[in-house]
Amino acid sequence: MTRTISAEELQKQRPFTEKVRQHYIAFKPDSPPLACVRTFGCQQNVADSERIKGMLAVMGFGFTEEPSEADFILFNTCAVREHACDRVFGNVGALKTIKRRRPHVLIAVCGCMVQQPHVAEKLKKSYPFVGLVFGTHVIHQFPELLYNALQQRRQLSVTPQEDGVIAEGIPVVRDGSFKAWLPIMYGCNNFCTYCIVPYVRGRERSRDPEIILSEARQLVADGYKEITLLGQNVNSYGKGESHGVNFAELLRRINAIPGDFTIRFMTSHPKDATHELFDTIAACEKVSRHFHLPFQSGNNRVLKAMNRGYTREQYLSLVAYARQVIPDISFTSDVIVGFPGETREEFEDTLSLVQEVGFTSLFTFIFSPRVGTPAAAMEDPIPADTKSVWFRELSALQEELSAQRLAVLVGTEQRALLETAAEGYLEARLPDNSIVRVEADPQYIGCYATVRIDDARSWVMHGTVLNIEN
């Protein structure tokens, strides 16, 4: 059952917002306090951090990228893979020196990682200099949590275990000026056996479509050129809700907003991808022709052990239908190598699926057991070095396929969004989500341009800007 935070409940945070503001005015009367917010993990975490920064801004904070300059340091964490967790602990440990030199600094850790009881306990026992720990379900209470943490010397930890909430009306400070993240739903009901997300993000809950549309209209009015709709499984948007709007219909409504912008979305679950969705993408000129559709394994036994809810054949059928109605569609995907019990023959099914589909790129991971998930308790006889060999083999195959695919684009002219400066170039993103490096003035970042593709390598293309749209 979705619990929506009422306007009255959010109003209760206002006095704490003012108390925090006054606290720092008394401490730093001549300059605003500075906050350093670092985000680990997925785009949903980035969107959460933007809301936290929105609340910090209302409390009078400015922002810095340097923890050594900050009065408040926040790490928003990811729990999907062990490496991400280890990285967070390493970074948190490094803050001990800052706390020793500047005792007034408040250090906080939030997000998916701390929603796990064993992680919260480790932070309490091994990182007592962390003053505030809070989970994914209480972000709307952040002003109150921050004020209470400032008032006590021991660590404040708030990580309620519940199905999750929806809180509207929280201010946002966006990281970018032309690309925006727009959450449309939270949580997950799928319970893939390897995944911790349903346990730390709660059950699926969809935002009201009119609120989403209002936010999208404002983003377009503010000049954003790319809007990415976010959810753990956007394809199941609206399930069980009385408004009757599914994901395909939501795309149609956002596509109808006047303006020159691109709609992207992630992440999609194959079991909920429908022909209606692909038909909608084909009919909506603003929806990107790039589709991130994680398949995880090309073998049916492994897919069943993962509790993915589809077969290899069903996945390939979806891809075939998509290419039938959207000939220029590109696919990217996620793959887990070395799932417990996977055999060499089963891994070769993954290789053959990759070969058959021809992905633009893959996000490949060696299986990482997460405490509390069924897969963590499965017998795993595959040696780590064998998994590493398979991983390199898959990466080499995808690199070869990517090079072949990008080579086809050489000599073509493409509309691209100029995004970032890197190594003396600007990186521009094509409609199929691939990247081309071009020479252009950084002042044009955030503009669309017509680019001719001059050469292509495994992952990066180089091109020439023919025209920039102002």
Per DSSP, what share of the residues sits in E-state strands of 2 or more residues?
15-25%
How much helix, percentage-wise, in residues? 25-40%
Distance between the termini: 47 Å
Radius of gyration: 23 Å
Reported by name, the CATH topology of the largest domain is pyruvate-formate lyase- activating enzyme
Indicate the structural class: alpha/beta
The order of strands across the largest sheet is: 3-2-4-5-6-7
**Large-scale geometry:** globular
**What's the CATH class of the largest domain, please?**
Alpha Beta
The biggest beta sheet is recorded as:
6 strands, parallel
Average pLDDT level: 94
Account of the 3D structure:
The protein is an alpha/beta fold and 470 residues long. The protein folds into three domains: 3-165, Rossmann fold (3-Layer(aba) Sandwich), CATH 3.40.50; 168-406, pyruvate-formate lyase- activating enzyme; 413-469, Nucleic acid-binding proteins (OB fold (Dihydrolipoamide Acetyltransferase, E2P), Beta Barrel). Helices cover 36% and strands 22% of the residues. The protein has 15 helices and 21 strands. It has helices spanning 7-11, 14-27, 43-58, 82-94, 96-101, 117-126, 142-151, 197-201, 209-221, 247-255, 275-283, 300-306, 312-325, 344-357, 384-407, and strands at residues 3-4, 34-39, 62-63, 72-77, 106-111, 132-134, 156-158, 165-166, 179-183, 185-186, 205-206, 226-230, 262-266, 290-292, 330-337, 361-366, 413-422, 425-429, 435-438, 448-456, 461-469. The strands form six sheets. Strands 3-2-4-5-6-7 form a six-stranded parallel sheet, with helices on both faces. Strand 18 (425-429) and strand 19 form a beta hairpin. It starts with a strand and ends with a strand. The mean pLDDT is 94.
